[in-house]
User: Fold this.
Amino acid sequence: MTAPGDFRSDTVTRPTAGMLRAMTEASVGDDVFGDDPTVAALQARAAALLGVEAALFVPSGTMANQIAMLTHCRPGDDVLVGEGSHSYLYEGGGGAALAGVQFTLVGTGGLFDAAELLAAVKGPDASGHAPPTRLLMLENTHNRGGGRIWAPDRFAAVVAAARSRELAIHLDGARLFNAAVATGLPPSTWAARVDSVSFCLSKGLGCPVGSLLCGSEAFVRRAHRYRKMLGGGMRQSGLLAAAGLYALEHHIERLAEDHRRARRLAEGLARLPGLRIDPAGVETNIVIAELEPGAPTPAAFCAALATAARALPFGPRAVRFVTHLDVTDADVERALSAAASVLGEGRGP
Ligand SMILES: Cc1ncc(COP(=O)(O)O)c(C=O)c1O
Assistant:
């Protein structure tokens, strides 16, 4: 029997044969001593791609975001994030526990504008009542927002507003290359405007491990200390960095295929009864569909689909499908046929 297409996340990919070969051929050294040439090469490549001075290889996107908060903030500071932000919802309370910050949510759906940002800024306040807002964290693409892209003009306006209030800015660009490929713009369009930016190798780029935290030389020097503090100093990590270099060479342009498949999936799902989704809102590789009242719950829907396609319950009424390196056109068609069997044939082509 054919294995079901796994649409739960773009983190489920297996390294390709070419990537594994690059890993086994990597030159390595002890990176805690600064001796690993492949890690150094990956960091230099990442910084150049993003148009910033320096980069630091870290084990995960979560650690990159946590280090960013530790580096930019002091305990008691306030951090602005869009609704559904990964750091706010999914990092185990790390922002509060490790950096000692509190979060304020801005806008709805993850993206927001300059006026909404300015309305959320707290302090400075001579009386000391307000927790000072120190950092703005933006997410591009926005995961819970359905892989939405920050339009460059809107992004620039929000960044300018944050600067006017002297906020530091971190971009959680876990899927920044999806935004770049979908728009045809270089990742520096977003990255070069902010103080720090992270991107993940272990999502659409198909690596087993790793993220890069990027910014100025001074920022990365300070971040390096926090990486050590959090236990993220790695030894012969050139093995992993080689996978990253391979992915930056071979797996960026192909993200367009993931986006095409996500759009096809969304268009097919939109025709089925009981599911609400706007295919035009699917800008990259994430498809979030709402199950209408009367339709199965997300858990029941995913269970009914499971022999043909694995999807993720994503809130009380939503399911998420993510396309990636290991999802084929046939997987998409099978998922659509299975969804039609569960929900009924629906509204025609
Ligand atoms: C937007 C975003 N940021 C950060 C992360 C965290 O990455 P990791 O799973 O590598 O810790 C994720 C993971 O899905 C994510 O979607």
